[in-house]
Amino acid sequence: MGLSTAFGESYTDNLIGTLLAIFGNLLVSISLTIQKSSHVTLAGTHDPRAFYRSKTWWCGFVLACLGESANFTSYAFAPLCLVAPLSAVSILTSSILGFIFLREKLKPKEFAKRYGLSFLGCILTIGGTYLFVSFGPNSHEKLNAEHVVKHIVAWPVLLYLFLEMFMFCLLLYFYKRRCYNYLVIILLLVALLGSVTGITVKAVSAMLVLTIEGSIQLEYPIFYAMFVCMCSSVVFQARFLSQACVLHDSSLIASVNYIISTSFAILAGAVCYEELNHEDILHISMFLLGTALCFLGAFLITRNRKRTKAFEPYVTMDMANGVPTIHNNRSVVQPDGSFSYGALVNNDSVAPAPLPVNLQHPPVSSLQAPPKPMDLKKD
Fold this sequence. Notes:
Elements: H1 2-41, H2 55-77, H3 80-83, H4 88-102, H5 108-134, H6 145-152, H7 155-176, H8 183-213, H9 221-247, H10 250-272, H11 281-303, E1 314-317, E2 324-328, E3 331-332
Antiparallel strand pairs: 1-2, 2-3
Helix pairs in contact: 1-2, 1-4, 2-8, 4-5, 4-11, 5-11, 7-8, 8-9, 8-10, 10-11
């Protein structure tokens, strides 16, 4: 009787956590679409912060806060292995909303050619989500401060964290010292930090929910240690992601980051909270199959997004001042004196070198009179 009651409570908690995660990812996707629409609408204004006064932008911001709050709360009810892959819902929703707001009128053949892979990716993502939710971990432990400490000091967790720190330092050395700006290296750094974020978010969320229910957990030091680690990892994650967005294509970042971060989050849940220990081989295999389908679906969805064209400038020389200028689409895109030879880099802090005296020429004027012909003396 006690076992069936515990199983029923665990199933209910898993259902609540899953629904909260799906709802949160839906709200985040909708909020980002609304905020992007506000940015596009106000793109022509001279004030770069005009969207702060837009009701549309603030509506998207409120929805984003509600979505992230739902995602945060879902970790307290459902296993980390189950919540992490549900980020595919955000990619799926963004793709559907982008297609709706695009409103392109295409023939069926052109539609199939342009959006066929994205449509297949949506089907795979929906099917994969159904599989890993249906065959995901059924048992769930309500984490209090004592349980969190017990999990953190276990030798598998300590070994896992040591290997993560070693890998993080190694990748950071190649990224910072050797200047290896490969996308995989940056997103591996993000995923390693995301693994720590998942561990700490689950602990903090579970202890906060227990505190709201009446079992005070805020008096334990482990809560504040987890909270500091959570905030620090989130900040550094955002920093590395912003650097990746500057160097690489955003659509590729979305799919690769989802694949790598979800893989590390599932591994963290399995090692730190032992979420897959009570599952049989069939359930684990179907769970991994559903996750793999979501990975493939997310890759296909982001594959067909339009990529921004690379900047292809051309250079002209101002004949009057002898200063080169960069142009793009018949418009000057870089001020005079900010050109660096060898690479198209803006070096505003370096003053242009003056030309030698013997190379300087007076300005050529179109109104200058032609020289008079010389009079030839007749002998």
